[in-house]
Design goal:
Layout: H1 2-17, H2 27-30, E1 32-39, E2 42-43, E3 46-51, E4 54-65, E5 78-91, E6 94-109, E7 112-116, E8 122-129, E9 132-139, E10 148-152
Antiparallel strand pairs: 1-2, 1-4, 1-10, 3-4, 4-5, 5-6, 6-7, 7-8, 8-9, 9-10
Length: 153
C-alpha cells in the first residue's frame, strides 16, 4: 500500500503544477513509441536511486503503448504496453549494466495513466502532460522515493 500511496501523492502534486485548459487526451492519441528522456528532471544518464554507497542510473529506455486486444471490453480506454529500461547499477565491484523489461495493460482516465504490470514487484502509474508521459516507477527492494520517468516521442 505504501507504494500506491506514494504514486497517488506524486500524481496529485503533478496535477497542481500542470497547466489547465487542454483538451482531453484520447487513448488513440497516446498510442505509439516513447523514449526515456529524463529521470527526476535530469537528462540521461540520470540517477534513479542511491543508498549506502550503491546507486543506479538509467541510461535509456522505451515505452510502447498499443491498442487493446480484441478480447478486451469495448469500453476499455487503453491497451497493451511494453517497457524496456537500460540501467547501470554501481556497487563495490564497479558498474553492472542490466535491462528491465515489463509489459501488461494500460488504461487512461482523464490525464491519469494506470498500468497493470506483468511483475508483482513493479508498480507504475503516470500522467500525461502536454503530450509527454511522466511515470512513477516503484520496485520491491529499491529505496524510496520512486523515480519520476519522463517519456517523449
Amino acid at each position: 500500500m505504501k507504494t500506491r500511496h506514494l504514486c497517488a501523492w506524486t500524481l496529485a502534486l503533478l496535477a497542481t503544477a500542470g497547466c489547465g485548459g487542454d483538451d482531453p487526451v484520447t487513448p488513440e492519441q497516446l498510442m505509439g513509441e516513447y523514449s526515456l528522456v529524463m529521470v527526476n528532471g535530469v537528462d540521461l544518464p540520470a540517477t534513479t536511486w542511491t543508498s549506502d554507497g550503491m546507486s543506479e542510473e538509467a541510461t535509456g529506455g522505451q515505452l510502447v503503448l498499443e491498442s487493446a486486444p480484441t478480447a478486451a471490453p469495448t469500453d476499455m480506454l487503453g491497451g497493451l504496453y511494453s517497457l524496456s529500461l537500460s540501467l547501470r547499477t554501481n556497487v563495490g565491484g564497479g558498474p553492472v549494466d542490466t535491462n528491465l523489461f515489463d509489459g501488461g495493460l494500460w488504461t487512461l482516465d482523464g490525464d491519469q495513466l494506470s498500468f497493470e504490470t506483468g511483475s508483482p514487484t513493479l508498480v507504475l502509474c503516470g500522467r500525461v502532460v502536454d503530450g509527454v508521459l511522466i511515470l512513477e516507477m516503484s520496485r520491491a527492494g529499491v529505496p524510496d522515493p520512486p523515480p519520476s520517468l519522463m517519456f517523449a516521442r
